[in-house]
Design brief:
The complex is a heterodimer. Chain A has 19 helices and no strands. Chain B is built from 9 helices and 10 strands. The chains are: A mainly alpha, B alpha/beta. Chains A and B meet through helix 12 and helix 15 of A and helix 2, strand 6, helix 3 and helix 4 of B.
Chain lengths: ~525, ~240
């Protein structure tokens, strides 16, 4: 179909094409523009699996009326979770649209109306937000269609409407943040909020396991009471769920709400959209700091490198949030384990080992692999060995500092368990650091989340290091309290072998710098 | 005796990336000389500089920096030189003084020497008023000037620059040129590559023209003029490039 150049349709096609190319990964080394064949095959397989799952689910629910409160409750729960994720990914997409697309200057300097550009960008955000959920949920609609249950077709307008609402809220939120905080801070805040939203959802998903049986019973009773009230199915709270089940009026209402929100957002904020971009462009010059730093020359090479690495990490809130996010993801695990008082000491040993291994791996990658100016180090007469050791130390020291307080607490309360904790933490930190030291591949800081793609061996070794020291932490902490059973001794031996083997393998596979 | 040694001596230098990038290059630059290396895109200029600075290892040939063999004693050779590539090697999250602190640390410059020199360089390059800003917010010209300050913090005897004036405005380009001339006036040596022939014409004592990894012409401006029957450097350059 030929679309008139400069029109909304033409621009939207350009936007969707860019989105398709982006799915291949912006940093694709091969210069490939579309997702790889393996990824497409995996997606096709996933699509088939979801259709099979959808077929059986829809058949199972064939006799259940659409206004059954239990169904509405289940769909609402899925929608709430999906909405939180949608909002998070929409904020990230808005940040990309506002600050990171390099083609916006070109578009805004063209005679195209800024409203068209904004409309298309917002449509692009909506499409990217809805795509994943359509992929997973529309197979249920297709299965319903094939089985003659038309109501499941409501998934299409339902998902799209929720995605549009989330995208509009995310865009307004992002633009509002620009007004309040300025463009540069908005980028950081939006990325942190997006990351935290995902992490908090993981924690929320564990609430059932984290709460006591009495609390669970109380919640269950409250929900049952809510759904058993006469006419509860007519409650406005169920509107999105009923829309998803294809009820005409809820579908119409939700779609109208989304449409109105979209129109209002585009009509009233497109000027500010352009202004947001100007702010983004000018943010580069607004980075002055009020603190007066006293230059400190003449430090040793080791200290110079360590301080430089710490400065770079501390001044990159986005990177810092991504590193610390790992701690957040481990929290549900800690809560789960701490609930059982009988395994508390073991849990502390294992948890600290896992946490330290993961954090050290992340920081070591930042310091060692994601060097911003590798050529500067190479052209200098400084000993590369000293530089790399200093970088390793810069990664390990904050982690050891972070766990020093809980370890001291443990030593005071239970000296034997505390010493075991010190041992496993030191081992986990050293192992993780050495794996990156020997097997880390060069990368860029901005690609922190994708660092695993560049170093499969490093990732596997890091995982084994965490598991080995986690297991050692568990069993040795238990041994500090009572003698181990024979099988536990075998487990300790296996974990100890793995803990030694991991750095050994890393050393054998080490890449030699120039 | 040391003063008689050339600042840079390349002999039979070879580097291949599928096809030869540097092909048997022989080049000598004397101390206190301002040497400009010219050539079309892909001629091997940047590869030559990366070989000289130890960023690449040659397939064959030798590199001597002030009489020190780069292969035998790389750290000693690197201590004498500084390299400024076309893309400045900076850290966006560091402030100018912090960057200079780091570079001074890499070259082992003492606090007594580095502190006043850092202030002097930032003043000279008009960066003092931006001393408390992160470099990620700097313009291209400011970044290039800060990288130059980093290159000069240890007062190198041999300064190697790859397209140092690209993207600079007239005022910034003038500051950089003045700084380079001052470095040569103090007895230092400068080797630069540039596409701006006027810069080579006005600043360089000698000019080398490289094509397909080989030095096809070398000499002072007058010598090159004589060889190509007069005209501007641009005419000579185009004449040499067109020659079979």
């Amino acid at each position: 179909m030929m679309l008139a150049p400069g029109g909304v349709g033409w621009l939207l096609r350009h936007e969707l094409r860019l989105g398709w190319f982006n799915m291949a990964g912006a940093k694709n080394a091969g210069g490939r523009r579309r997702p790889g064949n393996a990824a497409l095959a995996l997606a096709a397989l996933g699509c088939i699996v979801m259709h099979v799952l959808g077929w059986f689910t829809v058949r199972q629910l064939a006799g259940v009326p659409g206004d059954d409160p239990r169904i509405l409750l289940a769909i609402s729960a899925v929608l709430i979770a999906a909405t939180a994720f949608m909002l998070s990914s929409a904020i990230k997409a808005c940040v990309l649209v506002l600050f990171e697309r390099s083609d916006l200057d070109l578009l805004l300097s063209s005679p195209l109306p800024s409203r068209s550009i904004f409309t298309v960008r917002l449509l692009g955000v909506c499409a990217s937000t809805a795509a994943l959920y359509l992929f997973f949920l529309t197979p249920f609609a297709h299965a319903g269609l094939l089985q003659g249950q038309w109501r499941w077709l409501g998934i299409y307008p339902g998902v799209i409407a929720v995605a549009v609402l989330c995208s509009c809220i995310a865009m307004l939120l992002t633009l509002g943040l620009v007004r309040m905080l300025g463009a540069r801070r908005t980028r950081v805040v939006a990325q942190i909020v997006g990351a935290l939203a995902g992490a908090l959802l993981v924690i929320a998903s564990q609430l059932h396991a984290l709460t006591s049986r009495q609390t669970q019973a109380r919640i269950r009773d409250a929900v049952l009471e809510l759904v058993q009230v006469d006419g509860a199915e007519r409650n406005l709270l169920w509107l999105p769920a009923r829309a998803m089940l294809g009820e005409p009026w809820p579908v119409l209402l939700l779609t109208a709400l989304a449409g109105a929100m979209f129109l209002l957002t585009t009509w009233h904020t497109h000027r500010f959209f352009a202004r947001g971009l100007q702010l983004a462009a000018s943010s580069a010059v607004s980075t002055a700091s009020s603190t007066v730093a006293q230059p400190r020359f003449g430090r040793s090479l080791f200290r110079t490198v360590v301080i430089k690495e710490w400065r770079l990490i501390v001044r990159d809130p986005q990177l810092l949030s991504q590193v610390l996010l790992q701690v957040l993801f481990l929290l549900p695990l800690f809560f789960l384990i701490f609930k059982r008082a009988d395994v508390q000491v073991q849990a502390i040993g294992a948890g600290l080992a896992l946490l330290c291994s993961s954090l050290t791996g992340a920081l070591a990658w930042v310091a060692l692999s994601a060097e911003d100016a590798p050529d500067l180090l190479l052209v200098s007469p400084a000993s590369q060995r000293t530089v790399r050791r200093a970088k390793l130390a810069a990664a390990m020291m904050p982690v050891l500092g972070l766990v020093a307080v809980p370890l001291l607490w443990l030593i005071v309360r239970m000296p034997a368990a505390g010493l075991v904790g010190c041992f496993v933490v030191s081992g986990a930190v050293s192992g993780a650091g050495l794996v990156v030291f020997w097997c880390g591949r060069p990368g860029v800081r901005s690609n922190f989340k994708g660092r695993g793609k560049g170093g499969f061996v490093m990732n596997v070794l890091e995982l084994f290091n965490s598991l080995a020291w986690g297991a050692l932490g568990w069993f040795l902490s238990a041994a500090a309290l009572a003698p181990l059973a024979r099988m536990d001794v075998v487990a300790v031996a296996c974990a100890a072998f793995l803990a030694i083997a991991v750095p050994g393998v890393a050393w054998m596979l080490r890449s030699r710098p120039l | 005796m040391d003063d008689l040694l050339p600042a840079l001596r390349l002999a039979g230098l070879h580097k291949q990336f599928g096809r030869p990038a540097v092909d048997g290059l022989d080049l000598t630059v004397q101390r206190g000389e301002f040497y400009a290396l010219l050539g079309p895109n892909g001629a091997g200029k940047t590869t030559t500089l990366r070989l000289v600075t130890g960023l690449l290892a040659p397939d064959a040939g030798s590199i001597e920096v002030l009489g020190i063999d780069m292969a035998a004693a790389p750290a000693a050779a690197k201590a004498k030189l500084a390299y400024l590539p076309d893309e400045p090697m900076l850290y966006g999250k560091l402030k100018p003084f912090e960057y200079l602190e780091f570079v001074a640390g890499l070259w082992g410059v003492t606090a007594k020497e580095a502190a006043p020199r850092a202030r002097e360089l930032l003043d000279w390059l008009d960066l003092s008023q931006h001393a408390h800003e992160l470099t990620e917010g700097f313009s291209r010209g400011m970044k290039q000037k800060l990288a130059l300050a980093g290159a000069l913090i240890h007062d190198p005897e041999l300064l190697i620059l790859d397209e140092p004036l690209t993207g600079l405005d007239a005022a910034a380009a003038r500051q950089v040129k003045d700084l380079l001339l001052a470095h040569v006036a103090k007895g230092g040596t400068v080797i630069l590559t540039t596409h701006i022939l006027e810069v080579a014409e006005r600043l360089a004592h000698r000019i080398g023209i490289i094509r397909q990894g080989r030095l096809i012409a070398e000499g002072t401006l007058a010598e090159l003029r004589q060889r190509t029957q007069g005209g501007s450097l641009e005419d000579m350059f185009l004449h040499l490039m067109a020659a079979p």
